Amino acid sequence: MTEVAKDVQDAESELDGPSLWRQRDFMLLWSGQTVSEMGSAVTQIALPLVAVVALKASTFEVGLLTAATTAAFAVIALPAGALVDRGSKRSIMIACDILRLLIIGSIPVAGALGTLTLMQLYIVAITAGVCTVFFDVSYQSYVPSLIRAEYRMDANGKLGATQAFAQLGGPSLGGGLVAAFGAAGAMTADAISYVVSVVSIFGIRTREEPPPARRADETLRSQIADGLRFVVQHKILRRVVACTGTANLFSGMSSALAMIFLIRVLHVRPALTGLLMAGSAIGGIAGGVFAGRLAKKIGSARIIWVSMLVFSAPQVIAAAAWRGWGVLLFPLGWGIAYFAGMVYNVAQLSYRQSVTPPELMGRMNAAVRWVVWGTLPIGSILGGVLGTLIGVRPTLWLAFIGSWAAGWFVFFSPLRHMRNVPQPASEPAPGVTR
Fold first, then answer.
1. For residues 398-414, b (16+ Cβ closer than 10 Å) or e, as one string?
2. What are the phi and psi torsion angles at 65 (to 5°)?
3. Of the four listed, 181, 188, 361, 434, which is most buried by Cβ atoms within 10 Å?
4. Interatomic CA distance for residues 296 and 288, integer angstroms
5. How far is CA 247 from the centre of its chain?
6. What DSSP state is assigned to residue 374?
7. DSSP letter, residue 81
C-alpha cells in the first residue's frame, strides 16, 4: 500500500462511527462516568432502602425523600446554567465530584456511628442534588466541545448506554452490598466512584475555548433570561421540554412508589429488589446501543416522537405485576420504559446540542433541566400523596399511562413533518474532536 493510500485509509477510519473508541479524551470521559454512574445506581437503591428498612419511613416520607434528590433542579438550575457558561465546565465538574464524595460519604460514616437520621438523608439528598445540577449542566454542555455534531448521536448513545448499564449492574451490586454491609454502608461505593470520575476528567487533554467576554451591561439575570428566551421561542425545543417535563412528572410518581410496590405490595425481599430493577435496565442498555441505528433507519427527528408514542406504549404492564411469577411483569414493563426513554433522550439531547449556539449551551441545558427535572420532585410528592389516598397500584397505572401520553406534545409539532435533524451550518475541520 502506498503512503498516499494509507493516509486516505487512516483519514476515512477517523471519520467512521467506531473511531470514537480511539478518541482518548472521549474514552476517559466515558469510562469515568461509567464508574460514577454505577456508584450512583447503588445509591438509588440504597438511599430509599435506608429510609424504608432502617428508619421505617412512611410512604409519604419516602416520596418526600425522592423529591429531595431532584428538588435542586427546580430551585437553582437557571442560575447554574448562566454560571456554567461563564467559567470552565471541566473545573466545575471536578469540584462537584469532590463535594459529592464528601456528602454521600457522610451516610456510611453516620451509619457506622449509629447517628443516622431521616433528617440527614433529606439534607444529603438536597445538597448532593445541588452538586448534580452543576455537574449535569456542565457535562451536557461539555460534550459538544469534544465531539462534532454528526458524531453526537453516537456519543450520546454510548453515554446513555453507560447510564443504563449502571442501572443493570448497580442495583445488583447495591443489593449485594446492602445484604453484606447494610443500606448505609453500601453507599460507600458511590462515594468512591466520584474519586474515579475526578481522576478521569483530570486526564482529559482537550481544553475548552474560553467563554466570550461579557458585555458591561450583562447581568446574571439577563443571561438567565437569554437562555429561557431561546428555549421558549424555539418552536420545537419548547415542545420537547413540554414532553420531557410531563413524562418526568409521571416518572417521578412511579419512581417514588417502585420500592413500596415491590416490598410492601408484591412482598419482594429487599435484597432482591436490586435484581429486579437491574433486569429492567437491560432495556436502557439496548436503547443506548441502538439509538443511533434506529435514528438512521427511522430518522433522527422522527425518532423523537416514535420512541415516546410507539416504543413506550407497553410499559403499562408493570402496574399489573402480582406476587409470584407475576413479579416479572414489573421489570419487563420498566425495561420497555427504559428502552423508549433512552432512545428518546439520546435523540432529543442530540437535537438540542445541534440547534443551540455554543455560547448558550449551558443556559439552554439549564433552562431545559429546570423544567424537566423540576417536575420530578412534584411527581414524587404527588406519587406519595396519591399512593396513600388511592393506593399504590392505581397510582402506578396513572403514572405509566401519563408518561406515555406525554409523547403527543412532540407529535403535534414540526417534528412530525421532519425526518432528520438539520446539521449546523458551521463545523470545525474534519475529524472527530475539536
1. bbbebbbbbbbbbeebe
2. -65, -45
3. 361
4. 14
5. 13
6. T
7. H
Cα–Cα dist 236/375, whole Å: 20
Average pLDDT over residues 268-289: 76
Q: Tell me the pLDDT tens digit for each residue of 181-193.
A: 776 777 787 888 8
φ and ψ of 34, to 5 deg: -60, -45
Q: If DSSP codes are grouped into helix, strand and coil, which group holds residue 157? A: helix
- At residue 220, the 3 state secondary structure works out as helix
Q: Residues 137, 77: contact at Cβ < 8 Å? A: yes
Residue 135 and residue 96 in contact, taking contact as beta carbons nearer than 8 Å: yes
Alpha carbons 106 and 419: distance in angstroms, whole number = 49
The pTM assigned to this predicted structure is 0.72
Single-letter amino acid, residue 207: R
The predicted pLDDT at position 148 comes to 72
Q: Are 133 and 77 in contact (CB under 8 A)?
A: yes
What pLDDT digit, counting tens, does each position of 81-106 carry? 888 878 788 888 899 989 988 998 88
Q: If phi over 0 gives left and psi between -120 and 50 gives alpha, with beta otherwise, what is residue 208?
A: beta
What are 296's three cell numbers?
Answer: 438512521
The type of residue at 337 is A
120-151 per-position pLDDT tens digit:
888 888 888 888 888 888 887 787 777 776 77
* Of the candidate ranges 3-12, 16-25, 205-214, the one whose mean pLDDT is the lowest: 3-12
- In the block, cell 474515579 appears at 196
Three state DSSP letters for 259-289: HHHHHHHCCCCHHHHHHHHHHHHHHHHHHHH
